[in-house]
Amino acid sequence: MLSVGAAAAEDPxxxxxxxxxxxxxxxxxxxxxxxxxxxxxxxxxxxxxxxARHATARTGKPLPxxxxxxxxxxxxxxxxxxxxxxxxxRADAALHxxxxxxxxxxxxxxxxxxxxxxxxxxxxxxxALVAYATHFDHPGWKPVE
Length: 145
Prior knowledge:
This protein is mainly α. Helices cover 60% and strands 0% of the residues. It starts with a helix and ends in a 10-residue tail after the last helix. The radius of gyration is 15 Å and the shape is globular. Helix 2 packs antiparallel against helix 3 (66-84), helix 2 packs antiparallel against helix 5 and helix 3 runs antiparallel to helix 4 (89-109). The protein has a single domain, classed as Four Helix Bundle (Hemerythrin (Met), subunit A).
């Protein structure tokens, strides 16, 4: 799996830099980036995992498998996206910015980021999903409720 930094290094056309030298998330000349079926499926699965976590939190019942399970399932979806999604290089570089944020949130959900709580990790994933919807053309996308 490519890291955000590796994605940028492989894309010489990435012109904009975000914080700490990471590539910035941009649009495709003012338009949303196109998506393919594997990407849309994986992102919908990640969205469903975070939505289920929110719904469970509202009921006060424990989440089956806990936050670690949610994080592991998010990681599996990221792996599938990286393996099966085929986007042009610039779109792929933009996607890896989003995936990097989702991965950071997933690590926190799994307790692998001691300075970041699972709730903050879930919020990071949700924020990345908003960025995805803002920058990628995904017909029928619904925000996390």
